[in-house]
Each structure stands twice: as C-alpha cells, then as structure tokens.
Amino acid sequence: MLLLTKEDIKSVFTMKDAIEANKDAFKFFSSGKSVVPLRTNIAIPKYEGQVLFMPGYVDEMDAIGLKIVSVFPQNMKKEKPTTPATMVLIDGSSGEVCAILDGTYLTQLRTGAASGAATDILARTGSQIGALIGTGGQGAAQLEAMITARELKEVRVFDVDILRAQSFVEKMKSQLSNCKTVFKAVSTSDEAINDADIITTVTTARQPTFNGSLVKAGAHVNAVGSYMPHMQELDPVILKRADKIFFESQEAVLSESGDIIIPLKQGLITKEKFTGELGQVIMGTIKGRESDEQITVFKTVGIATQDIVTAKRIYDKAILQNIGTKW
Questions:
Q1: What is the C-alpha end-to-end distance of the chain, expressed in Å?
Q2: Per-residue confidence band for 59, with pLDDT thresholds at 50, 70 and 90
Q3: Catalytic residue among 67, 244, 299, 312
Q4: Residue 173 appears among annotated catalytic residues
Q5: Is pLDDT at 37 greater than 90 in this prediction?
Q6: Helical pair 15-30 and 139-149, crossing angle rounded to 10 deg
Q7: Which of these, 4, 118, 191, 195, could form a disulfide with 8 (CB 3.0-4.6 Å)?
Q8: Which residues are CB-contacts of 275 (< 8 A; sequence separation ≥ 6)?
Q9: How far is it, in rounded angstroms, from Cα 121 to Cα 118?
C-alpha cells in the first residue's frame, strides 16, 4: 500500500492533469461506466459541520474508492483546513487497499478541476476577465483551474471579509507567480462580476452571492459551494437568464443543492431549463455552448467518480516515478 501526501501529489500531478482526469470522470459517469451511490452526510450541529462518506466504483479503471470528507467552516478560525479529508483507493481486481491519499488536497484539486473542465468546455474561447467569489479552502484550486482553462488578463476576488480577500490575493500572487493574470481583491460582488466572462462561486452561503441581472451575455458561471439543500449561492435570476444549465450529475444536484432545489420549490424555474450533464457534452450526445452570446451555468456538488479517477491517475504516476511511502 502506498501513502501519498499533498507534497507527493503535487510533485506528480498538475491542475491540467486533474482537469483532463475530471473530463474522463464525467464521461465515465454519464455513460454509466461507474457506480456512484448518493453520498452519506452526517450533520454535526454542535460544530456547524458535516461528515460525508463518498463511495464509488469505476469499472473501466478497475478502481474502487471511498472518500471521507468533513466540512467544518469554523476550522478557518483555528487555522485548520475547512474540508479535511482522506481518500482510500482500492484495487478493483482484488479488493485490496492500494493507496491512501491526502483527501483534503485531492478534494481541492478535483473540485477545482471540475470547474476547470466546465470552463474549458463551456466558456468563450476569448474570455479575458474572471471573478472568484469565496476564498476558503477551495479558493486556491478554483483560481488555479480558472487560469489553467483560460489565459485571463484579470481575476477579481470577492469575499465577505475584504481583509481575507486581500490576504488571499497576496498569497496567490506568490503561489501562481508564473502566470501573467492580474489578481485583484474587490469590496463587492457587483464589482467582481462586472463584465466578467467567467464567474466561479465557492462559498457556504445561504443567500445568493451576486446579482444575476448583472451577469453579461456570453458569461459562464461555475457554482460550486451549495452542496446542501439549505445552501444557496446562485441568484435564481441567473438560472432564469441562462441559455444552458449543466451538471456533473443531475440526480446528485437535485438531491443536494439548494441552488437548484430552492428555486424549483419556489416555482422560479422548472426542470425544462436543464440542458444535461457535462459528460454528455464530452461524449457529443448533447451540445455545449452554441454562440458567444449564450450564458452557460455549471452546477456541481461533486461525485465519487471524480475522486476515484483522479486518485487512480495520481497513484499510477506515483508508482511510475517511485513517489510516496510504502506501508
């Protein structure tokens, strides 16, 4: 069995690698080549947290996985990860555990890569301006994925805490110093999304994080943070305005995300607005963006197929490069 830390993973696997792995994961899922039970979510009200158990199986890769991920927003005050996690990778041909990976970084990587895959497939080719709303544990990977998918001139960063946004921007300037994109902290979400080509939201908000009427024609929106029925990042206005709405798993989103559940219950949108799954676009069974004027939305809650495919690709590279600790 191989133990792989964050540093091990970073040494063998890039964000570009992760984006391509996620595209394959979405294709496997939408073509029925993976088994993904709905995740088990145990609430921990005492600490405003949840613990999620995400099992799955990808037949084509002979890979089984179980990720245990906790979401504890208050960890930020303790300077601990808000989404600590562990990934167990199992050999699908023998049932033996073959690797344990740092699930916290894996989650950040594959969640960012999901938005990166959607951006690469759906955003306009000439996109110039990005907006990132939320600077928590997922923020860095979301930003990296955005600039990996498109060569942007500027990304505006908004957080309800402007000091946190400013600190995040300075940190990203250092971590992503090789890129030419300008990162800028802004004081309102209106300023962030003004004329933005790509908008990514990654918060635990219970109210919409931006004004949907201000999103320009031709923009692409990634909605990442609303993973429970009471959470809502998206203004229903943007769902009504959207020309196409995509998911990684429509079933999972309709079971878990307030971004979609709430406006459906309120009668603000209907299921007829939904275009389909990103994997279907990748397979060519449905069309993605069809004009530069269309507004596209990608809503993701995360599925185990992403973790398994990404973990297996990391494991394979680590074996080839003799990286990790054998146990």
A1: 5
A2: very high
A3: 67
A4: no
A5: no
A6: 90
A7: 4
A8: 244, 245, 246, 286
A9: 5
